[in-house]
Amino acid sequence: MANIISDETMEYVGILAKLELSLEEKEAARHDMERMLDYIDKLNELDTSGVEPMSHIFPVDNVFREDVVTNGDDRENILKNAPEQKDGAFKVPKTVE
Amino acid sequence: MDILDLTAVELGRKIREHEIRVVEATEASLAQIEKLEPQLNCYVTVAKEQALKQAKEVQKRIDDKTLTGPLAGVPMAMKDNMCLEGLPTTCSSKILENFVPTYTAEAVKRLIGAGAVILGKTNMDEFAMGSTTETSAFGETKNPWNPAHVPGGSSGGSCAAVAANECFYALGSDTGGSIRQPSSFCGVTGIKPTYGTVSRYGLIAYGSSLDQIGPVARNVEDCAAVLETIASYDKKDSTSIRREDCDFTAALVDDVRGMRIGIVRDYLGEGLDDEVRDAVLAAARVLEEKGAVTEEFDLSLVEYAIPAYYVIASAEASSNLSRFDGIKYGYRTKEYEGLHHLYKKSRSEGFGKEVKRRIMLGSFVLSSGYYDAYYLKALRTKALIKQAFDKAFSRYDLILGPAAPSTAPRLGESLQDPLKMYLGDIYTIAVNLAGLPGMTVPCGRDSQGLPIGLQLIGDCFREKNLIRAAYAYECTRSYEMPDLAKQAREQEVR
Amino acid sequence: MGKQYETVIGLEVHVELATKTKIFCGCSTEFGGAPNTHTCPVCTGMPGSLPVLNKQVVEYALAVGLATNCKIHQYCKFDRKNYFYPDNPQNYQISQLYLPICHDGWVEIETAAGKKKIGIHEIHMEEDAGKLVHDEWEDCSLVDYNRSGVPLIEIVSEPDMRSADEVIAYLEKLRLIIQYLGASDCKLQEGSMRADVNLSVREVGAKEFGTRTEMKNLNSFKAIARAIEGERTRQIELLEDGRKVIQETRRWDDNKEASHAMRSKEDAQDYRYFPDPDLVPIWISDEWIARVKERQPELRSEKLARYQSEYQLPQYDAEILTGSKHLADIFEETVNLCRKPKEVSNWLMTDAMRLLKEHGKEPEDLSFSPENLAKLIRLVEENVINRTVARGVFEAVFAENVDPEKYVEEKGLRVVSDEGALRRVVEEILEKNPQSVTDYKAGKQKAMGFVVGQTMRAMKGKADPAVVNELVKELLER
């Protein structure tokens, strides 16, 4: 069945993904997403009842770190690529109204 | 003798025996880069001064015998999604154009420790999303066999650089075929190791559960030597696996007698180019003649790998790429009103079309109400695909098939129809879903002279089976180099 | 006759765990420090960095779960919670949604209304966010990632509470349990314990819950009580007006005693959780659970009983002392040093409590060392200083953790018991106050008290009272 993605959904996904597409980009993205979803719907042909979702391919567990401080002050490096900084912190537009 | 005729391991030997100086080899690579880059654009960044400085330092350590490994002094290149301290790491994206990491990827650290000379960072599809290296923000890379064609992707820069002698070997990364498919298109050898074999620390993630770093080189021996160096347990990567069997060069044995090889019948049907099919089957016959037992079989579920892959990879990518927001590093838009506008504008201007498309798709499939239908369904499909491989490997030591349905398409052809481009990954993607090792070796050329690649797939942790079969096959052939690379070497440096 | 309403409250309590390092990297969790000096590529979300789980976080979460009667998901995982905000460097928080480490537990609380069980829906592990400081000068915000990646557990209760009293009793219970386990210091003001209140109202007798709101930014028990009252009133007013309560997150402003909605078009509250592919699952074996149970320190009820039997303390004193893990720790360590439980208890119960109250502080804030309290007790016992002086010295110990021995020497506070010197002082006072002698001889005992008092004052409290008494008596009767 053909998937139809509404304007509202495109707008909503844009908010989630923090992307602002131009009108032209949006139409192209919508078209591609609809086609991809049609294609992904192919998975519904498969009977997966009783199959556990496999998020990790190998049964590896319990990878831990001991609670020991290994890092020192690395601020200079951490801020090196900041677009804007002030007083040793990352500068961003005001976050409260 | 021309230095550029040597493989990485041969060069390493001559450097150790003091027949060739590291600086000479580095200068030879840099000269080739200078001649061919205007045509091919394999590199995003060439680190000329740094490479020459490193060459001198490595030479000293070889002279005082602190460096004795097979790759000491051999100039190489790395894909631009692996961090290298002090050099821009862009993922071929505008959003990371000015990002200079202050740390180095673990796999690269291991190579540096083994005496590698780093020539530069190679071009790729933006954030490794693509199969042609055309989605790079810094221009497409061209195929050294015919510059009107793509090199494949996403590790197109690494594979083209190896084919064009612009380095002796390179590192690539493979999320859905990004080492194996461009290796096939460029006529070089590449390995995607078992998931967890090479540390992902410092590799900028696309699909974390699928990404693996691997070698691209001129032959099987070089690949084995590089993989042996970069494979290691890393406590900084929780998905890294402790392995005792990383002596991959031990598998360089010209003997496949008794090896059971399954040929995937589902990979040979509709959609596969006739010339590719013939070349792949001919390669299977060569192995059979050398004593392997081959048999065609049905793997099943082949057509479900791509949809499952695009759900999982896009979902993970939408989350992995959310850190690029113009706050801590990378591109920040010039004008904005408030925080959310800053996010949206920086990301919309910084990311290319294909990346935005996948982030949108990934955000959608994870959004409220769709998680079960898409994401969990894809993870269940992944479990079934793994079972299908497990079944196959109960009967075969390795699986053989093509790496791609065709040889390299012409530039500009693929991006017109993304879905068709995605379908081009049909033979490589399932391997990533199942965490398996896969490998491409050249097995001929088509009527246009473009290379064809043979793909070998092993059970997890069975890279040695791949290397042994690939090596035995390679022993029956000689390495082919594109004319472009040969001609460039005869030119004077301008 | 108006309708009767019932308040239904559930809590989400965040507790910062007392680990030395962050949950996924080897950066220190120490408080303070200049912005971004406790950071690394992992806790600032640098590209290519990867998380590795701190084992101690699992140990603490497990200990809290077992002490609150929870079941354990022996196979558990971390998920990513995706949302954009600058204090969250990856723009996703690593948390647990699908398989939280602990679930279905309870604690018992006691209020004036009696005893009651409060259900715990789940406890999950997650990472804290960084800190945003608003810069008024430049009208911008500054991000400090020192707190980013500090381990938290979130304890989600069932909607089992019906009043602010129950909420406070529940929080105090949790705090005590967690402090006793050593899993956190649980300071509300410093933010190492934070509570979000989910509240709805319904008519008494109704079966269905009303629509709830979530209240954030509550950093004292008083603020919590006020916010509950404020939100209850707001919701009832809405319903009485025939309007609806909207499910939303509200921020409490304790100065204005009012809350406002935190909603914006850009907060879709659709977190797109999925299992974090960078971390592997956790498998908690039966042996591991048994080990944590075995190591479980003495909890309050056991301590309470022991203080009465071993130290012979009255029940009331034992209750006060064990009411704070920190206070109990100071008590026990001081007793270990000086072997005078009754004496230590007195100092803590009277002087320490009085000073805390005067300064508006809590037992958690006590900052002097048991060594110094023990020294003070020894000085009194050995009669180096008298009790009156000792109380002054205690104030200095309380305020600045001074060494009482040095302090007494520096300030010259030693008791004067040199009879010759005291005799001269008493004689001088008697000379100036001949009436006292007359009064005493006329049988007025009070006169003696007056002379003793004058002498002590002249000695600035440092005289040995016994010696003074004897001398005064002798000289008056002369």
Provide a descriptive summary of the structure in words:
The complex is a heterotrimer of chains A (97), B (494) and C (478). Chain A has a domain at 7-45: Histone, subunit A. Helices cover 35% and strands 9% of the residues of chain A. Chain A has three helices and three strands. Chain A has helices spanning 7-17, 23-40, 75-79; strands at 64-65, 85-86, 89-93. Chain A has a two-stranded antiparallel ribbon. In chain A, a hairpin with a 2-residue loop joins strand 2 (85-86) and strand 3. By secondary structure, chain B is of the alpha/beta class. Chain B is globular. Chain C is α+β, with helices and mostly antiparallel strands and 478 residues long. Chain C has three domains: 5-288, no CATH class; 298-411, no CATH class; 419-476, Arc Repressor Mutant, subunit A (Orthogonal Bundle), CATH 1.10.10. Chain C has a nine-stranded mixed sheet with strand order 3-7-8-11-1-12-13-14-15. In chain C, helix 2 runs antiparallel to helix 3 (221-240), helix 7 runs antiparallel to helix 8 (341-358) and helix 7 crosses helix 9. Classes of the chains: A alpha+beta (97), B alpha/beta (494), C alpha+beta (478). Chains in contact: A-B, A-C, B-C. At the A-B interface, helix 1, helix 2 and strand 3 of A face helix 9, helix 10, helix 11 and helix 12 of B. Strand 1 (64-65) of chain A pairs parallel with strand 2 (53-54) of chain C.
Report the end-to-end length of chain C measured between terminal Cα atoms.
84 Å
CATH architecture of chain B: Alpha-Beta Complex
Task: Name the shape of chain B in a single word.
Answer: globular
Q: Fill in the CATH topology of chain B.
A: Amidase signature (AS) enzymes
> Using only CA atoms, what is the Rg of chain C?
29 Å
Largest sheet of chain C: 9 strands, mixed
Fraction of residues in H or I helices of chain C? 40-55%
List the helices and strands and how they pair.
The complex is a heterotrimer of chains A (about 100), B (about 500) and C (about 475).
Chain A: H1 7-17, H2 23-40, E1 64-65, H3 75-79, E2 85-86, E3 89-93
Antiparallel strand pairs in A: 2-3
Chain B: H1 8-16, H2 22-40, E1 43-46, H3 48-63, E2 75-79, H4 106-113, E3 117-122, H5 156-163, E4 169-174, H6 180-186, E5 189-192, E6 212-217, H7 220-230, E7 260-264, H8 274-289, E8 293-297, H9 302-320, H10 339-350, H11 353-366, H12 371-393, E9 398-402, H13 418-423, H14 429-433, E10 438-445, E11 451-458, H15 463-474, H16 483-490
Parallel strand pairs in B: 2-3, 2-4, 7-8, 7-9
Antiparallel strand pairs in B: 1-3, 4-6, 5-6, 5-10, 9-11, 10-11
Helix pairs in contact in B: 2-3, 2-16, 5-6, 9-11, 9-12
Chain C: E1 5-16, E2 53-54, H1 55-67, E3 71-72, E4 75-76, E5 79-82, E6 92-95, E7 102-111, E8 114-127, E9 131-135, E10 140-144, E11 151-157, H2 164-181, E12 193-203, E13 213-216, H3 221-240, E14 249-253, E15 258-261, E16 274-275, E17 282-283, H4 286-295, H5 300-310, H6 315-322, H7 325-338, H8 341-358, H9 370-381, H10 387-400, H11 404-411, H12 419-432, H13 434-441, H14 446-458, H15 465-476
Parallel strand pairs in C: 13-14
Antiparallel strand pairs in C: 1-11, 1-12, 3-7, 4-17, 5-6, 5-16, 7-8, 8-11, 9-10, 12-13, 14-15
Helix pairs in contact in C: 2-3, 5-6, 7-8, 7-9, 9-10, 12-14, 12-15, 13-14, 14-15
